[in-house]
Design a protein that fits this description.
The chain has a domain at about 215-325. It is built from 17 helices and seven strands. It has helices at about 5-10, 15-25, 30-40, 45-50, 60-95, 105-110, 130-140, 150-160, 190-195, 215-225, 235-245, 250-260, 265-275, 285-290, 295-305, 315-325, 330-350, and strands at about 100, 120-125, 145, 165-170, 175-180, 200-205, 205-210. The protein has a five-stranded mixed β-sheet with strand order 1-2-5-4-3. About 35% of the residues are buried.
């Protein structure tokens, strides 16, 4: 880990001010590389907030660059807030049950401030049967599909995929409508219908918005980060901040993770939050993390690859995904579905996948 990467991780975690001050005053630090790395990992607002106490020791252009980017992010996030509230009102008026997750609701739950988390879209979970109604509501209120599909392709998306993107609002924002949390090939067959029974409400600009329970959210964040090999520090920050800000029913989390075969991915997210950000874990949670001997070695490998783009190579991905699964049947499901997914894509989804 170079000096710029070390400073970045120190700023994002439960920091030691002496260590940060030493790194800030390192005359060899490449500030342009530092800024690029912070932007790549989508942590500009947090970095700016935590560098402010060292204002007098920073090059002025670095401080004002970060300040400008953080202010732009806050303004952009407020726009997302407005469109979240608008869509929530439209869905409620049309008797559409929905859950808003990630985006502004995660910013509120985990960071306590919508301006401190970088995000680029609004995510809604719906019942799959309601998709035609959701589509009509969005289109009738000025939105449009982000994909230009034939009728055959749209049917394939609904049958084989897990989301459909729209552009919505003046100066349009991306809205991703989900009926599952991720592609079927990943084998994360979470019971989304049960998720709707555990929702909590959170206030966004005075409006009550339904979002995931803390326990469901933690699992979804850990599985999402694992799917993408924890290649962004922001994903680790999401987990760490949620643990610090919200009460977690650990027995429920662990039981859900065991039921749906994501125990190791949950442990990975928790261990990375502890190791990278110095987040304290309750003793019983730490014992849970340590109970799987393969978690620690996999976490060490992933930490080494956070700043290494070679770990994104197509040939490496399936191997790492398989090692993240603790049950043989999930490994088998992943392997079979991955082949099927590639075949379906080639036949029905020539527009490609968003990720």
């Amino acid at each position: 880990m170079n000096t710029e990467q070390k400073l970045l991780t120190e700023l994002l975690g439960n920091k030691f001010e002496n260590e940060i001050e030493s790194l800030v005053n390192n005359e060899n630090i490449d500030w342009q590389l530092f800024l690029r790395t912070a932007a790549d990992h989508r942590v500009i607002p947090l970095v700016f907030q935590n560098l402010r106490p060292f204002f007098t020791e920073l090059p002025p252009e670095v401080f004002y660059n970060l300040q400008s980017r953080a202010q732009n992010c806050a303004a952009r996030n407020l726009k997302f807030n407005a469109w979240l509230i608008k869509l929530a009102e439209l869905f409620k008026a049309n008797d559409i049950e929905f859950i808003s997750y990630k985006g502004p609701t995660l910013a509120r739950l985990a960071y306590g401030d919508v301006g401190l988390r970088q995000f680029g879209d609004l995510d809604f979970l719906i019942h799959k049967k309601d998709f035609p109604k959701v589509k009509n509501v969005i289109l009738e209120n000025g939105g449009k599909p982000a994909w230009h599909l034939s009728e055959k392709q749209e049917k394939a998306v609904l049958r084989h995929y897990y989301e459909f993107p729209f552009m919505f609002g003046a100066n349009p924002v991306l809205v991703e409508v989900h009926w599952a949390f991720m592609e079927s090939y990943f084998g994360f067959d979470y019971e989304t219908e049960e998720v709707f029974l555990r929702v909590q409400n959170i206030s966004v600009q005075g409006k009550e918005i339904p979002t995931l329970s803390n326990e469901d959210l933690l699992i979804v964040l850990c599985v999402h980060g694992s799917k993408h090999f924890w290649k962004r520090l922001s994903w680790i920050c999401d987990v760490g901040k949620l643990l610090e800000q919200q009460h977690i029913e650990w027995n429920r989390v662990i039981k859900l993770a065991e039921n749906f075969g994501c125990r190791r991915m949950l442990a990975l997210g928790l261990l990375l939050a502890k190791d990278v950000l110095k987040v304290a874990l309750p003793e019983e949670v730490w014992q849970f993390v340590k109970s799987d001997r393969k978690t620690e070695s996999l976490a060490e490998e992933l930490k080494r690859q956070i700043f290494d783009d070679r770990s994104s190579a197509e040939a490496i991905r399936p191997n790492i995904h398989l090692r993240m699964r603790e049950r043989r049947r999930d490994k088998f499901t992943y392997s079979c579905r991955l082949f099927t997914t590639k075949l379906i894509d080639s036949l029905f989804m020539p527009m490609g996948r968003p990720r």
